[in-house]
Write a structure and sequence with these properties.
With 431 residues, this protein is α+β, with helices and mostly antiparallel strands. The chain contains 14 helices and 18 strands. The structure holds one RNA strand of 75 nucleotides.
RNA sequence: UCCGGAAUAGCUCAGCGGUAGAGCGGGUGGCUGUUAACCACUAGGUCGGGGGUUCGAAUCCCUCUUCCGGAGCCA
């Protein structure tokens, strides 16, 4: 007898194996009993026939409840009814624990109930698929960056100041040093890293205390920030495009069964792996105004604008060269037009919205200082950041990816809250 | 923060002025191929809290609480 797991069943057909896992569902009809068994690697139907198993074991098995933990031995064979799938003929059952009445039933539940039971909801097949997709997306991003000369550079989560002045921060007391804040982005710290390592990235939780209440927002989410020395605006966008297209290919290649569970239209994903569209902010505004949007020449894109811009596009859309008033202080001015900055957003198709924000950074000390003063920023806390422009300043660029936004798009699910094990939202911190 | 909506059995919902309902889940029994299995029986409720209108309120009105959807902000 061999210990194995569900995903490796095809290698053991006809030979007795042992599997350790849980009951997803159970049905019985007199002398026959069907257990939908799962073990983390996948799920399989296990069948027990009373005369074969014996009365005692069969009665033990009949008492199994949803999510009971158990170890089964049995012989895997072709499924009697479903071609191409397998089932286990049970030869033995060891109940590890009879589960109490499981709160999550077989019928539909509302989001509030499911989120209150998130610790259990994570076991259901759709959530299982999303968690595995998250794993694939996370490591695809890391692999691509590792292969393109980027070094992991972990920026701090406890910070003395905001990286971007306007948004709201989670504040806490920091011993005798006054207030500290949970990081909104490691970007400014990453800029120090490139002066040592050339190309760097971080990947960790960031925090936004905005009272956002939409399906695209979390108060705690995972962001990958990348930064590269001697990379300018155009090359910055090329890196972003290469990375996203690599993630698409990886997901299609490694997560076929997960995407099927999620009922994702994989053809739409496949078509997104092609050269991305590019337009300037001014072009986007003209296009949107022609479509009836109320956006102004110096305005930011609204939620509907993002949908309109990508509605007819198979591929993600870059919007670049933004009015400086609506973008962060550290973005480099456009040499061709001092009213603009060399920033870009990347909008996912199918209405999934912004997944990347990036820019070339202002590398001139005096221009950066004047931008900070114009925005009434305190200078002293950012002296270290200004120092970077005094000691060997170079042109450099970077971008940040919202991991959960990217997963939402890849998986095609409706709400971002399902893309992270324990979503933190304005009205939810349990469990 | 603003604009909508919702709250009835453990869960998902119906009932919208006249005796509180269904499906799932639970319990008991039946069934040798089930696919959110099925069939029979059964237990389960201060209709979110408070106040009002009415002969009579789950139902109409006010208020509070909680949640959902959207906007803005952003990834």
């Amino acid at each position: 007898m061999t210990d194995t797991c569900v995903k490796d069943i095809p290698a053991h057909l006809g030979k007795e194996i042992r599997l350790k896992g849980w009951v997803r569902n159970i049905r019985h009809s007199g002398k026959l009993l069907f257990i939908i068994f799962r073990d983390g690697s996948g799920e399989v139907q296990a069948v027990a026939f009373k005369p074969d198993l014996g009365d005692d074991l069969f009665e033990q098995a009949k008492r199994l409840t949803l999510e009971s933990s158990l170890i089964i031995t049995g012989i895997p064979k072709q499924h009697q009814k479903l071609t191409g799938s397998y089932e286990i003929s049970i030869t033995g059952i060891e109940v590890v624990q009879y589960a109490d009445e499981y709160p999550i039933g077989k019928k539909e539940h509302g989001p509030d109930f499911l989120l209150s039971n998130r610790h259990l909801w994570l076991r259901s097949s759709k959530q299982w698929a999303i968690l595995r997709l998250r794993h694939a997306v996370y490591f695809a991003i890391c692999n691509y960056l590792n292969d393109h000369g980027f070094f992991r550079f972990d920026s701090p989560i406890l910070t003395p100041n905001a990286c971007e002045g306007t948004t709201t921060l989670f504040e806490l007391d920091y011993f005798d040093e006054g207030k500290a804040y949970l990081s909104q982005s490691g970007q400014l710290y990453l800029e120090t890293g490139i002066m040592s390592l050339g190309r760097v990235y971080d990947f960790g939780p960031v925090f936004r205390a905005e009272r956002s209440k939409t399906r695209k927002h979390l108060t705690e989410f995972w962001m990958m920030d990348a930064e590269a020395a001697y990379v300018e605006h155009d090359e910055n966008m090329q890196i972003q495009e290469g990375l996203i297209r690599y993630v698409i290919r990886t997901v299609l290649d490694k997560c076929a069964s997960e995407l099927k569970i999620l009922e994702r239209d994989t053809e739409r994903l496949r078509r997104a792996d092609a050269p991305f569209k590019r337009m300037t902010h001014a072009e986007a505004v003209a296009f949107l105004q022609a479509k009836g949007s109320g956006i102004t020449r110096h305005g930011d894109l609204g939620a509907q604008d993002e949908v309109t811009l990508t509605a007819d596009s198979d591929v993600p859309v870059f919007v670049e060269r933004w009015p400086k008033e609506i973008k962060a202080f550290y973005m480099k001015r456009d040499p061709a037009n001092p009213d603009l900055v060399l920033g870009n957003d990347l909008l996912a198709p199918e209405g999934f919205g912004e997944i990347i924000g990036g820019s070339q950074r202002e590398d001139d000390h005096d221009l950066l200082l004047s931008r900070m003063k114009a925005e009434n920023m305190p200078i002293e806390p950012y002296q270290w950041f200004l120092d970077l422009r005094k000691y060997g300043s170079v042109p450099h660029s970077g971008f940040g990816i919202g991991l959960e936004r990217l997963i939402t798009w890849m998986s095609g699910i409706h709400h971002i809250r399902e893309t992270i094990p324990f979503p933190r939202m304005i009205y939810r911190i349990y469990p």
